[in-house]
C-alpha cells in the first residue's frame, strides 16, 4: 500500500515549456486534489476531482489543466509554464464517506518541486 | 469566501513550556483539520475535528474546536525539540479544504 505517490519529484522547466505531473493513489479514494505551496501562503487548491471523469476548479486554476481518466490517477498539466508557477505541488486524496469520520482527512503525496526559469 | 487565519505565524519556544496556536475562520464550518509538515516533507494529518466542542489529544498536542466562535486551538504541553515543524489548520469548505498560512514552531533546548 503505497498511499499517494507523485511523479516526478523535481523538475526544472524553461518559460513556455509544458509538462504533466502525475498523482496516483491506491486507496480507492473518490476525491483527489492538486495544491501548490508557496512560502508564507499555506496550500492553495488548484483543481480537484470528486470522482473518475470529473474535475473542478479550485482557488488558483489559471494556467493549469487536469484530467481524471482513471479513479486512481489525477494529472496536472502546465501548457505553457511561467516563472510564477515555480512552487511545490502536492496531490492529496480522501475517501467519500460524507466527511463524517475521523479517517476522512486528506492524505498527501510527497510533493513535486517545480522551478520555471 | 472562506478565509482561515492562523496566529502566530512563527513561534519560538523553550523546551518544557506550554503554548497555544490559534486558527480563526470566517464562515460557518463544522469540520476542521490540523496537519504537521516537517521541512522538505509532505503533510501529515494530526487531528480531525468534526463537531462543536470536539477535543482530541495525541501526546503533547491537544486540539479543540468551537464552531460558534469559529475558532480552533492547538495546545502544546511541555514542548520538546521533536515538535519543531510547521503546523497548518484547514477548514472544510464543501468537500474542499481552505488552509491557513501555517505556524512555524521552533523548540529550543
| Major sheet attributes of chain B | 6 strands, mixed
Share of residues in helices of chain A: under 10%
The CATH topology of chain B is what? Answer: Immunoglobulin-like
Q: Largest sheet of chain A, if any?
A: 7 strands, mixed
CATH architecture of chain A: Sandwich
What is the name of the CATH class of chain A?
Mainly Beta
**Residue share in β-strands of chain B:** over 45%
Helix/sheet category of chain A: mainly beta
Work out the radius of gyration of chain B: 13 Å
Number of helices of chain A: 0
**Low-pLDDT sequence parts of chain B:** none
Spell out the helices and strands of chain A N to C.
EEEEEEEEEEE
Secondary structure tally: strands of chain B: 11
Q: What is the mean pLDDT of chain A?
A: 93
CATH structural class of chain B:
Mainly Beta
Overview of the molecule:
The complex is a heterodimer of chains A (about 120) and B (about 110). By secondary structure, chain A is mainly beta. Chain A has a single domain, classed as Immunoglobulins (Immunoglobulin-like, Sandwich), CATH 2.60.40.10. Chain A contains no helices and eleven strands. In chain A, the strands form two sheets. In chain A, strands 2, 4, 5, 6, 9, 10 and 11 form a seven-stranded mixed beta sheet that branches. In chain A, strands 1-3-8-7 form a four-stranded antiparallel beta sheet, with no helix packed on it. In chain A, β5 (about 45-50) and β6 (about 55) form a beta hairpin. Chain A is globular. In chain A, about 30% of the residues are buried. By secondary structure, chain B is mainly β. Chain B has one domain (about 5-110): Immunoglobulins (Immunoglobulin-like, Sandwich), CATH 2.60.40. Chain B has no helices and eleven strands. Chain B has strands at about 5, 10-15, 20-25, 30-35, 45-50, 55-60, 60-65, 70-75, 85-90, 95-100, 105-109. In chain B, the strands form two sheets. In chain B, strands 2, 4, 5, 9, 10 and 11 form a six-stranded mixed beta sheet that branches. In chain B, β6 (about 55-60) and β7 (about 60-65) form a beta hairpin. Chain B starts with a strand and ends with a strand. The chains are: A mainly beta (about 120), B mainly beta (about 110). The interface of A and B includes residues 41 and 111 of A.
Amino acid at each position: 500500500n503505497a498511499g499517494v505517490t507523485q511523479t516526478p519529484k523535481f523538475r526544472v522547466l524553461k518559460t513556455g515549456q509544458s509538462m504533466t505531473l502525475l498523482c496516483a493513489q491506491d486507496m480507492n479514494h473518490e476525491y483527489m486534489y492538486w495544491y501548490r505551496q508557496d512560502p508564507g501562503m499555506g496550500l492553495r487548491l488548484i483543481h480537484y476531482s470528486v470522482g473518475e471523469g470529473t474535475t473542478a476548479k479550485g482557488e488558483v486554476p489559471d494556467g493549469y489543466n487536469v484530467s481524471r481518466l482513471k479513479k486512481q490517477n489525477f494529472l496536472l498539466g502546465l501548457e505553457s509554464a511561467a516563472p510564477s508557477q515555480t512552487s511545490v505541488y502536492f496531490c492529496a486524496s480522501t475517501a467519500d464517506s460524507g466527511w463524517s469520520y475521523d479517517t476522512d482527512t486528506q492524505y498527501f503525496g510527497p510533493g513535486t518541486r517545480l522551478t520555471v526559469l | 469566501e472562506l478565509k482561515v487565519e492562523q496566529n502566530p505565524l512563527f513561534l519560538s519556544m523553550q523546551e518544557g513550556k506550554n503554548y497555544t496556536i490559534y486558527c480563526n475562520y470566517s464562515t460557518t464550518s463544522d469540520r476542521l483539520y490540523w496537519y504537521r509538515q516537517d521541512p522538505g516533507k509532505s503533510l501529515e494529518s494530526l487531528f480531525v475535528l468534526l463537531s462543536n466542542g470536539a477535543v482530541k489529544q495525541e501526546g503533547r498536542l491537544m486540539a479543540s474546536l468551537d464552531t460558534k466562535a469559529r475558532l480552533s486551538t492547538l495546545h502544546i504541553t511541555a514542548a520538546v525539540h521533536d515538535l519543531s515543524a510547521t503546523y497548518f489548520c484547514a477548514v472544510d469548505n464543501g468537500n474542499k479544504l481552505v488552509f491557513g498560512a501555517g505556524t512555524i514552531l521552533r523548540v529550543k533546548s
